């Protein structure tokens, strides 16, 4: 009887028996509710084409930077893990899987191991712990499961109980996969695009002129002028709204906002196209455009989500060899209070405007995000994100924000994952941890048990539906 | 039998039964001790005139930014809550109360709900939970209690067990209410003014010339010159000391300190009066004046309290419509180590000088405040303040500072509240949480139970008396 | 029966009985393992000469800034505590000890008291709590123990079970004590020097020219030129390696790194020797030299440890009177992500390069250090340091880093102490706290008990051996 085979029913619930009993009841009432995933990175093509997955490594390892970055830290070359577009053949995929198995101890105590064990046992029936010895047998077992008809993406959506899933999409995307899904009456879940315009809002990029030229093509607007550029963005946002989008997502180095005079914005835009804008000017225009995004949101209704504070591509040699998203985005400090003042001064109380704030810098939870969400009707405290979407950090998040804003000014859980099969494990983890937190408040007599039950349910239904206008 | 009616006797004590038993004993030994409130915002006029309260809304809701800011976040216009001077008639007051009742779920899990339920049950006998259905009956019940003779401010001081209460006062205030209270032998508690000179130390304010002119009038000093300005401040501090003040309170955007040459200070002061000082000069003079306050403190003995790190009036449209203190002061980062070096270099070891450091940025608890208070005889770690005076944050505070400075270099609890009726609930919460923290140390065998008892008592007696020279 | 006499066997283990049982088993399996201390400040001369200790104060109080800084905060003059070179006679040593005893309550709840009680009971058999009444008797008792042959440094090394001990040494030190120890077959433990070049890397120091002149002398290189200066450093590092060093230690105001052109480095170096380098230039050269240290590490194999974020000598009058290390180094914010980019871009994946990151600013644990250690094979998350090497902070550290990097990208415990007798108490504390943390993960079903046992052992064996190449 292998120990990994046992996914303990009380995992992540509090150790104290009295509190655990309360948490158990709370969790029982929410564990089976449908999954709402309003922000993530599942390719819509998978669902539109119901593409079969090919092998364990390309399904579970190569796309998951949580996993491959730690293997890199252990000395495994990224190329051997299929990162950055390098296609692995069968032998390569097996070798990559062996690397993971050999270094499985590295992940002890981490959510990565917790999620993957949840998947291995719950989805794939791999009941032996990963190790050098079990590398081939576990690979075989997963490969066998993957090959089944019932392991196609659409079947998994159903099996995982995902009722709402947002993808992340380029503004120039034609959203044909989303259109196909919407037109398909046999497909039940709601799959929505998300407008992600970052690179089109960075006038300092060397490819900015090409990017906005392309934006002009797909929108039919003349992006040679600033006014046309703004119209093109408005056009594409509307296109996304028409294809079911409910939010736009933004991630820049900071969240400083400012408003330029129209003429100044226009002047910098023209200079940026000519490649003559200074870095300061480009940054100013980007900050101005973030306010423009808020302005457009008040018109087209898209919820705005901000994900700042990641220093992208920290290790230049790895970027050169493997491209972006190869595991070396590292968090930095962020500042919201001063940075967002211009944006919130203009739209913070505007009808229908909604702004969800995420962070990799947990110092702002209690200091900035919760206080902002406790005054501005538009602001919601986004769930713990990325490096922080893990048991200890989620506990710190609830501890940090609840004092100031309770539960109803938060966004609900966001998985933001590229690892499709981890979605149920991640949402389940969140439900367990929220049950544990609520149970502690009940045990402390800060909350009545019936209120805790209502909150637990709301956190996976009403709360994300409100924050994301579902 | 309504559930809110039950204020559980063990609320906020730890869930683990063994630790809870220790905490219960600790709490039992301090729950009845008199309340020392060395910093807060109760209007002295209430006590001097023993003014009856008029209605539930103006007593409990309109002055309490903790409450009305969350209602604003829920979409309720501030004007409908009586914020910013707008007087509400009886119908308006009832409507405001209804807003609170309708949105009562927003506050689940927050200290605001905890305090108000404590008040509703313990003071007003409102035993049904607030809701749209109970809005009128709860309003009526509170209004009835308020109307009683035994609900006048002085009776409440007695009932609440408040032995020491500091108010916060303008340097030009004549302190007549304090004088009246001091002269009244029938009034037992000690009510002290606090010297709060912020705006008189901000040469960059557009009304600076008017402010110091007024300072000149009340002090009899000629504030046309810098030397006269300094004498005027010294004069008013002495006036406060003569009227019982024990501390001065300071809140600016940062706590950077520096010393200007007398001639340079004088030059900037004159320029500020003429409206020609640059922003840099004004800031420099303000930073210099904070050191001057410390210098004066070494002469007149006032304890200096610093409350930095709030970005005041974040939302300009709300400021325009409702004035300051309308719920949108938002915390920012602060820095103490470098900022206070000049002040502490000059007065950090000066006889009798005492400096209590508060913060809205909890990152400085372990990094800066505790280390400073663990070396400088003058420095005390101020209690968790404002957004941080809540169960989770208070736990983090004790966790952050105790490793470095134990309990005797802290200030004791500060309620800093405008909500008079919440004072006992707030101090009771603090006593419960300190009992819980101490019980954990006892259960861990880090502290002997007898020592924990001594500390629990000291934290509400000797510790604030020492920090505030009572 | 005195209460202090009881060092409770379960101290620091969790209060919940179920979790405590798990923690007890974990602790039992590691409590007796040898101590590896890869970074600290024990004078090698003590061991080489096996010098007898003279008195309780000079052994336990005067060298321990954790203790004397709190006594200073309580108003005791440093001169009366033997700080800063002031030799105390017998009467003075007794008076200093009395100060400690009189203020013993100040330390309630702090690790300083915990460690010292551990030493008093466990090493000295002082079974009465310290107090004014027991000051003389406890002093006498300790003095008696100290006088014994079995209390010589070498005997203590053996008694404490220290198998590896690193000292901290000046690059110009001849390491004769280390050589003597290495040559002495009767001495079992491994005692290693650590290369600590800080002051030789600060071109802005007024004594920089003298320092590098001395470096030239001992290395036989001509440090009049930048090239010679670099060779001299390489030479001394090799000398340290030959004498058993495994690491170099670095502590500057920040960890910003950059690479200067050779010619520019040379130009600034020459200017610095002439005293004409600007502060910006000096800082640039220091930041460049930190990268040079990394470059040399890839050649000579020394592990690089970074200890930034302390504002040294905060109180100028105390510095003037008592010299450095007199208790007023105060933490400041640090930044690693951007700062280390140049260094890690060049050497982050270099063969054999290892970099251990420490901090006094705990906000970087989850935000920067763990994410860096989870990608770069070279980076290890250093243990909680100095103000943070205490029960609450150690708990926060494990909570902050484990989600991202588990246990095997950390450094293991570092005592970094000048208080020789506290070494076993500190390591024992760390083992108890790690057992408590692991037990919590087991109780939560995040970790299997057998895995927790393996981790607990690894944390005091394989983990520090890996991080420090032992």
From TrEMBL, chains A, B, C:
InterPro entries per record: Metal_Hydrolase, Uronate_isomerase
Reactions that this protein is recorded to catalyse: aldehydo-D-galacturonate = keto-D-tagaturonate; D-glucuronate = D-fructuronate
Keywords: Isomerase
Keyword Isomerase included in the entry's annotation: yes
GO molecular function ontology, one term from the record: glucuronate isomerase activity
Pathway of action: Carbohydrate metabolism; pentose and glucuronate interconversion
Pfam families: UxaC
The enzyme's E.C. designation: 5.3.1.12
Family: Belongs to the metallo-dependent hydrolases superfamily. Uronate isomerase family.
PANTHER family, alphabetized: URONATE ISOMERASE (PTHR30068:SF4)
Annotated protein name in UniProt: Uronate isomerase
UniProt source species: Ornithinimicrobium faecis
